[in-house]
Every structure is written in C-alpha cells, then in structure tokens.
Amino acid sequence: MAHQSDAPHVQLAGCTVDLDQLRRVLAGEANPETLTPESVAAAYGRLSRRTDPLRELRAEAAADVERARKSMANIVHAMGHQSIAEHAVFNIDFGHVSRLAVELIEMHRLASYTERSQRYVKFKADYLAPPEVQLAGLADEFVALYRAMFAAYDELHQVLRPQFLARGGDPAQMTKGRVTELENLAKEDARYVIGLATQTSVGATFNGRELELLIRRLLSHPAWEAQHLGRVLKDQVQPLAPSLVKYCDPCDFFETLRPIAAEAAGEYGEAEKPPRHPARVDYFAASAHPDEHVIAALLFQGGLGSFAHCLQIAQHLRPEEKKLIYLELLRGREIHDNVSRHFELPQFTFGLTVSASLYAQLKRHRLSTQIVTDYDPDLGLTVPPSVRRAKREKSLRAVAKQAEALYEKILTLTRDPFIASYALTNAHRRRVLVVMNLREVYHFAKERMAQFAQWDIRETAGEMAARVREAAPITAQLLLGKDVYPQERHKLLKMFGLPE
Questions:
Q1: CA 20 to 30 Å from 225, out of 96, 233, 254, 429?
Q2: 10 Å Cβ neighbour count for 404?
Q3: Contact between residue 350 and residue 280 where contact means Cβ atoms under 8 Å apart
C-alpha cells in the first residue's frame, strides 16, 4: 500500500581533508576541528604567489584554519579566483528525495551522481506529499492518486515479468544474470505508471564552487522540498567550510523567466498549442561544414597554419581523402575510448519531446547543454510497447487521467507548474532543447543506441544520430551503439586497408 514516507534528508558523508593533518589528529597531535576542506584549497590558492613546497603550504594552512579561511575568502571571493574552491570536494547523501527534486539536484554538470534506479530496483510505495498540496486542501486526493499509481505499478510488474522472462526461452537454461536482465525490463516499463513524487536516494559528489551554487539554487526555488534540502545542506556544510560555501542566500533571477516569456507572448503571439502526438525530434540544427571542421582541426594541430587556412584545405579535399583522415582519428581507439577533441568543433541542436523516464537518463549527459520546459500533460503520454502487448494500456491511461485531473486542480490553486507536476507520472512528457558537440554525440550514441539501452531513449538517440549523419556524413558515420561499434569500425578500416 502506498504511504507517505519520511521527509527528504541530506547528510554530508565525506569531504576533502589534508592527509598529513589527519595523521596528526589520529596521533593526538592536532585538534580535530582543524580538519576542513578549506586547508587544502587554501594551500593551493597560495601556491601561485609563494615558492614554499606544497607540503609546507598545506601544513601552514592546517595549523591556522582561521587565517586560511580569511585567505580563501580573499582569493576566491574578493579576487575572483573561484576555481580554487573546486579543490575542495564534498560527498553528499540525499535520501527520500522525490524524482522531481532529483532533477533540480542533477542539473549541475560539474558534479557526479549515482541514483537508485527505477530500472533496476522494484520500488516500495514511498512518496512525498508536498506541503503545498496539503495547504491547497488536496491531500486526500493526492494520497488516493498515489495508491492508484502503485497498485497499477505492482499489477503491471506482475504482468510484464513473465512476458519478458519468456524471451529467454527455457528458464532452466537461463543464467542468473540473464534472468535479472529480463526482470529489469519489467521494472523499467512498469515504472511509467508511477509518479514524480516517488522517493529515491542519490549519492552525489560536488566541489565547493558547484556546491555553493546548488545550495543557492535550492534555497531560491519556490518548492518546499527544494528549500528544505537547501537549508539542511547549508547548515551542515557552511560551518565546516564557511569561506568556500559563502554566498548561499536566495536570489530571484532563477525564477524570472516565466513572466518574461508570458509578457513576450502577449506582445508577439500566444504560446503554441502542443500537438497530442509530438515528434521525438521536432527541431534540428547543425553548425556549418561539420566534416571539414573536424578535419581542419587535425590539420591545424599538425602545424599547417592558421585555422582559416586549414579549413580551406579541408574543403578542397576529395571525399576519399576526408574519409581516410576521419578513420585515422579513430584508429587505435578501443570501445571505451572517446573520440578526440577535434570532434568538439561541430555542434548540433535538438528539440526533443521526452517522457519523464527518458529525461531521467538524458539529464545524466552533463556535458551537453539542456534547457527544459515544465512537464505538460497536453504533450500526451509515452506508453511502453510491452504495456500495449500486455493489453494494459487502458490501466496506465486511467491512472494518467486521474493524475492530470489532480494536476489541473493543483495548478489552479498554487499557480505553480512544478508543484502540480508532483501529480504526474513517468509517462508524461516535457520539451527539452539539447546542444551537443560531435564528440558528445558519439558518447551518447555508444551508450544509448546499444541494444541493452532502455528502449525509450534508444529510439530517441537513433533519431538524433540519423539527423547528425545527414549533416556530417563522413565524420558521423560511426554513430552507433557500443555493441556494434567495434565491428563496424573494423569493417571501415579494413575497407581502406588501414590497420586497427
């Protein structure tokens, strides 16, 4: 039975400390209060203006923490050398956090995350009942909705599990790993019916500079859950590293975009009515001459002159010559190796419409630029093919209809699309504008076009790669999943007589 779980919580799990100072503390030779991530950062901050050995700079900073903090405040904030704060690293436990709030945390690209995945774990019926919904007098309806969601989730999982296990043939012949793999497919498709208030856990690693921004963003957000996470995190981290996590006060520029957009729409035209069946990729743009830019970057690095000159050479090369250069850039790189930085010059912009389940994976590609809209029930639902085959689509749509009705009530009373989105399911959609350079597209394709990738993002990645191959037919021809990439690369190299 679905039930409201504990409030979201945050726990500082670890941080950078000076190892020499830690040894002194353990030996009883130093005060434990001198163990702060500021001392290492302060030592590195002094390095650019001092000739002392690094170990002595670290010992100096650890011996006088207050002086180190004053030094850090001057270097990082007064002088503007904010990269010094990146030498301090913090490990953070986020527990009982809603999937909606996880999106706020994981939008920070200079951080690392590991999340309890709804693809691999059968989730318990834990969810956050936002105080804003309770204040709006809709608590009972919210509870009823989540009970319906998790009842449908359990039923879908029970129906889909044997459907997927049947793919493996004789159960007696399947390995334990294969059984787990097939069972996970049932979990990842059943999850489309549960909501964005469903709680999960995240282990995160932030440097001091990015952590300060995270706290500031959370405290600036209108949602209670975000503010709660921000307050608790600030209370734990700021006393430990006050010179690094200093400017955390809320600011309003994070939340001013909607009024600006509404004003512009009022003057120049109304907002577009969403199509009920939007395309996965409804916009695509490529920078000019992507193939030639990759090749020109190689020529430039090879010392053939200015980039403008190298681009002229690249544009006059025959297609076969361009292909040879492209393959030379790939030769010797194993499946775990990224393509070279030459591929970072071309850029591609995609307008996507994605389910919440797909976005949960897309947001992990942090080196791309992603600009998102609010979830919008008018964009329709993404229904897993397995759910249709099991003839349970009506069940999913019935829960989604109940969710959309409550969404409208919450939106009317709170006038906040974020709060209303707690009522929506993983099947509901949003629009995302994504910008990737060609190197990132290669990484994205390897991971998300592979046969073992989740079907929803695999289909979108396939459409994105097809658009890029049209724009860059030479340097993008091996945009493939990692399961087939090695064989196809081998074929191309062999065709041109090149060794691996």
A1: 429
A2: 18
A3: no
Rounded distance between C-alpha atoms, residue 42 and residue 215, angstroms = 22
What is the pTM (predicted TM-score) of this model? 0.92
CB 298 within 8 A of CB 342: yes
Token pair of 194, please? Answer: 């549960």
Which three-class secondary structure state does DSSP give residue 305?
coil
276-380+428-500 classified as CATH 3.30.1360.170:
yes
Burial (CB count <10 Å: 0-12, 13-18, 19+), residue 313? middle
Question: What ranges make up the beta strands (E) of 63-169?
Answer: 89-98, 111-115, 126-127
Give residue-wise pLDDT tens across range 373-399: 999 999 999 999 999 999 999 999 999
The mean-pLDDT minimum among 7-16, 99-108, 110-119, 325-334 falls in 325-334
CATH 3.30.1360.170 domain residues, the chain: 276-380+428-500
1 band by pLDDT with thresholds 50, 70 and 90:
very low
Q: Is 403 exposed, middle or buried (0-12, 13-18, 19+ CB in 10 A)?
A: buried
